[in-house]
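Now for one record.
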Amino acid sequence: MTLRTWIHRAAWLAAPALALPAAAEEPARPQAPERALAQAADETSLALGDAWPDRPEWLDMYTAILNDEPMGPTNGWFKTSATQTRYGWDATRTKLDRDGDGKVARKEYPGDDESFARLDRDRDGDLTAADFDFSKAYSASPGSMLFSRLDRDGDGKVVREEVERFFKAADADGAGFLSRLDLERALPAPSGSMGPGDRPTKAQLIKGLFRQEIGSLQSGPRLDESAPDFTLKTADGRQEITLSKIVGPKPVVLIFGNFTCGPFRSMAGNFEKLNRRYGDRATFVMVYVREAHPTDGWRMQSNDSVGVATAQPTTYEERAEVAGRCGKLLNLGFPMLVDTIDDAVGARYSGMPGRFYILDKAGKVAFKNARGPFGFKPAELEQSLILLLQAEGASDHQARADAP
C-alpha cells in the first residue's frame, strides 16, 4: 500500500468524527465543544482499531491532528507507542524475588549498593512495582519547573552562575533572601498549555508529520530484534563509526536527537551524567537527526529565546554544521554522529525527534523508549541499563567459571 493510499484511507476513517450527526426524532441535547470533540476523537480511534488493527503508528497521529486533539501523552501515537524493555517489574520480580513476597529486598539483589539505591526510586529499601512505574515521569513537577527557569542557555544543564542569576532576579528588592511570595512570583503555576508562540497550527502539524519532523513515520526495531547496522561520520568528519564494530565488547546506548527539540536538549545533562556513571561499562553514541522545530516549519518561540534557530538543512554539509553547533552547546562527552540527509538511519530507528535504545552485546534491542517528547525518561533508560549490566556481568562471570 502506497503512502498516498494510506493517507486517503486515514482521511476516510477520520471523516465520521468530522461529519454532522444524523437527524433524529427528538433534537439532541447540545454538548459542550470540548466534550463533543473528545467523543468524536474516541469514536475515530475505535473505528481505526476495528478497521485496521495493524495500522502504522503515524496513522493514529494523523487522525489525532485531524480531530484537533491536544498534543499529550494520551493522544495520537503517544498513546499507541510504549516503552519496550526486558527489565520491567514483572521480569525483575520473577528473576530476583526469591522468597515470593512481591518485592525485591537488598539481600535478593545480586548487584552493588549504589546500583540498588538507584533502582530503589522511592527509597523505601525494597524494589517494588512503584519503582518501575514511569507513567507520571513526564510532568510539570516543581523540579522541572525550576530547571526550565534556571537553564537559560538551553543546554540541559544548570550551573552555579545560572542559579545566582535566578536568585538575583527573584530578589527584586535586594533583601539578600527569597520569601515564599518571591518564589511564587518567580515560579508561577503552569498554565497546562503551550505558550502562544509555541502553539502549532493544524497545517504545521500535518506538514511536520509527513516531513518526519515531529516524528518518524516508521516505528523502529522492536524489543529483542537485531539493531540495523549503519556507518556514519561525526560532525567534524574526523571519525567514522560503524555500529556493528562497536557492539559486542560492551552494550551500546544509542541516543537520537536534534538541536531544535527543546525537550531533548533539556535531557543533555542527564545523558552526560549517565555516560560518566556507566561509560566504562557501556558505549554511548548519539545520532543527530533532522530538526523538529526548524524556522521554516513548526517554529518555537521558546527556542528563539535561547538562541536556537535554524532552517531545516537541505544538504549533509548544512546538517553537519548545525550538529556541530548542537554538540558544542550540549558537550555530551561521547561521539555525535550525523545522519545522512535522506534520514536513512533516523527513519529506520524511528529516531525523530528523539529516541533512546540500549543494545545488548549481541546487538539486540534490550530497551527502547516511547515516542518523544513524552517518552523522554532517562531514569527509565538508566534502570534498564543497570539491570542489563548486572545480568550480562553475571553471565560473563558464569562463563569464566565454566571455562576449562
